Amino acid sequence: MLTQDRYRAILDLLEEKNSVTVSELTKLLDSSESTIRRDLSALDEMGKLTKVFGGATSITRNEGVFEDAVSTRETVMSDEKDAVAEYCAKLIHDSDFVYIDAGTTTLKLVDHITNTNATYVTNGITHARMLIHKGMQTEAVVGAEAIKSINCFNFTKAFMGANGIDIGSGFTTPDIEEGLIKETAINKSYMAFVLADHSKFRRVYSVTFAPLQKCCIITDKLPTPDFSQATVIKEVKNDLHRNA
Question: Less Cβ around it within 10 Å: N or C end of the chain?
Fold first, then answer.
């Protein structure tokens, strides 16, 4: 079987089953384990699947339906999120009118913010409380009126969270209402930044709120270089290593 035919067969099987094992593929495709492992590595590099121990999973597996609890997400990639947040806090200037999206990485951003001259708007209740406690000029926009309120503003900068980042599907989230709020905030901002650790790449959730070219991505590291062809991306890892 030709290489491209094996690729297609592997992806078709993943679309049907969401996960496959190397052993299963060797039997179905009448190929050696080393050949299948090379195929999976190649498809993983192309962003077509996620290679795991003993096999592979679909990059969209369960992503459109389920999302981890906030308490769980807060502990995942904590250092990476903190590095991204610390970098973004330095982008806020005195004259900025800033929108801060709800989310665990943007909450870390709030923790790093020191500029008391900028004005902040957020749809995160915890974010608003922290900002007010720190003496920041803050307005919270929540609930059904959030979109209407955001439409009245013209932000200089927006700092957004995302559950998934994909070249074809853009920035995604599992919640429709949340997606509409994110979309509105980005459209009402002069500059928009998506704060995301490297685990968010190649993930696709059910609601797209912006194409990649609408926002700059601030991340700890870029899993594959092809994303940099779609938008501006800043990796903070090199800065951190220099300062270590």
Answer: C
Q: Are the CB atoms for 106 and 127 separated by under 8 Å?
A: yes
As given in the structure block, the two tokens for residue 153 are 């503003």
User: How does residue 164 score in pLDDT terms, banded at 50, 70 and 90?
Assistant: very high
Burial class (CB in 10 A: 0-12, 13-18, 19+), 191: middle
Round to whole Å and give the CA distance between 154 and 115: 19
Q: Which of 173, 171, 180 is nearest to 146 (CA)?
A: 180
Name residue 49's amino acid: L
> Please, which residues bridge with residue 121 across strands?
99, 139
DSSP H helical segments within 74-171, as ranges? 78-89, 104-112, 125-133, 146-150
**Whole-angstrom Cα distance, residue 52 to residue 171?**
24
Residue 115: strand, helix, or coil = coil
pLDDT in tens, 82-141: 999 999 999 999 999 999 999 999 999 999 999 999 999 999 988 999 999 999 999 999
